User: Fold Cell division protein FtsQ from Chitinasiproducens palmae.
Amino acid sequence: MAVASLLAGLSILLIGDSHLAQPNYLIGSLHDALTRQGAKVHSIGVCGVQPADWTVRVNGECGSAERVGNRPATMTSGAQAHTVPVAQLIDAEHPNLVLVVMGDTMAAYQQVDFPMNWAWQQVSTLTGAIGKTGTQCAWVGPAWGQEGGKFGKTYARAEVMSQFLAANVAPCTFIDSLKMSRRGQWPTIDGQHFTAAGYRAWGDAIAHAVVTLPSVARR
Assistant:
């Protein structure tokens, strides 16, 4: 079966943090890759937020972006940049799939210890809100990026974050970005955020993973 026919008519709500908050980030590459394959996509990225922030309205720290279908992304800054409760979005749009892209913001790269209890509360709050709606969901974990940079990213903590998400995002399906590239393969601007080329590679890889999700393949 052709890839395009697998996603044709699929409605996807894509939410996340700063990786979706600039036009040449995943709100460009991933959104386009899913749309080309026939999906109807609504993407919202809010810089600096955590998973539980998507269950209430929370102002972003450094802007946001929103994109619907083939329209260009709309950028927002200041107090106007905020999350929208995921239950509200689902009730308004009835998507077939909620796709969450979050991990780097929780990884606490510059802290000695990974804040596991706090991270569990963050993740379970969001997955619980999605789960109550009965909507299928998938959670995209962090990619390798490059060590160092502004955020002090390390490969070891990226692995810890990825393994934590794999074990804790149910009922969502986990999508492991670490399997999509080699360490340091995709170029970044600060260790954590990719160049346009890096985001294209990551977006294409995520879109391929979405096609193979059991909930999508059964359609």
Observations:
- The mean pLDDT is 94.
- The first helix runs from residue 3 to 7.
- The radius of gyration is 16 Å.
